[in-house]
Every structure is written in structure tokens, then in C-alpha cells.
Specification:
The protein is of the alpha/beta class. It has one domain: Leucine Aminopeptidase, subunit E, domain 1, CATH 3.40.220.10. The protein has five helices and eight strands, in the order βββααββαβαβαβ. Strands 4-5-3-6-7-2-1-8 form an eight-stranded mixed beta sheet, sandwiched between helices. Helix 3 (100-117) packs across helix 4. The chain is globular, with a radius of gyration of 16 Å.
Length: 200
Amino acid sequence: MKEINKKINKIKIRNTTIEILLGDITDMNADAIVNAANNELQHGGGVALAIVQKGGNIIQEESDKIGFCETGKAVITTGGNLKAKFIIHTVGPVYGEGNDAKKLKNAVLSCLNLAYNENLKSIAFPAISAGIYRFPKDRCAKLMLDTIVTYVKNRDTNLREIYIVLYDNETFSIFEKEFKNLKNSEEYSHKVTKSPGYRI
């Protein structure tokens, strides 16, 4: 089991901390973790399968009752046996299907809005669409981070911690590079905080 790597990068904007971590999202002790699902909410592979295997069949059963989720939208189920109380299932775009960037942005926003509506304080994202949906990881990193930062800057939210949890070193390094670009931008530089394990 891959443990969460505490050597993290973080920024704090207003009252919300945004962090990227290397580890297994199913181990996250957050109010909600995000599952990159398919439209039919059949959790048969990748992170989705790991979530159901660890969290129990109740997650698939609740998903079956919901039945369908549009690309760019999000739905919520219980977290079952996971540390997370809830799972927010969102459907990202398959790369090349058209309007990819807008659909990915909408998927992230749908999760954030659903977390707000449920009065959640913390949420953990994977790299949406960057696996079998083949979305380029560098573009995914930029779009996800830009969307999250813009959201936090421009609206009041009950979310105090937003995590992006990457399972493999390659994806983590790509997100870390984009995170550093964000850190070095003049607009955010005065808002950056360092954790004890911060890596430059």
C-alpha cells in the first residue's frame, strides 16, 4: 500500500489550503475523495475499482441507483469503509472528443460546487482524465490547478483543504512543476506557504 508522502507543496489562498501529494487517494482522511468515473458509474477499473474494493459494494450499489453522470458533472455517494465520508464521482473528458479543456474544468468545478453544497471542509482530487482517458498530464495539471485557484480566489467556500493526490512519481513530478510555475507567478507568490518537507 502506497502511503501518503508528507513532503508536499502547498499554497494558502484566503482561508483555503491547496496541496499536492504523492500517494494513494483511497487512504486520504478527507471529507470527500473524488473518483474519476465513467458515465455509467460502473467502477470496474483503475482508481474507481480500488475505491470499491476498499470501500465496499455499497459504493457501487449507490452508484447504480444514480445510474448515470454526464461528462463534466458530479454526483455523490457514501464513502463506505474508506476514511473519507463521501465519494464525489465525476466524469472527465476522453481526450480528443472535443471541448476537452472546458469539460475538464467543468468536472473540477462540479466537484467543488457539490462539496460546497454538502458543507464539506476537505476534498481530495486525482488527476482527472489523465489515465485511460489519455488527457495530457501537463495540460491536466495546469487546468486543474488554475480552476481550483480561480475558484478559491473568487468565491466564498467552506472548503479549508483541497488536495490533489497523485499515485505515481511521473504524474506527481508533472503536477509539481506546474505547481512551482503557480508559486513563481507574481499573482500568487505572496500567498505561498511552505510545509516542513517542501521541495524546491
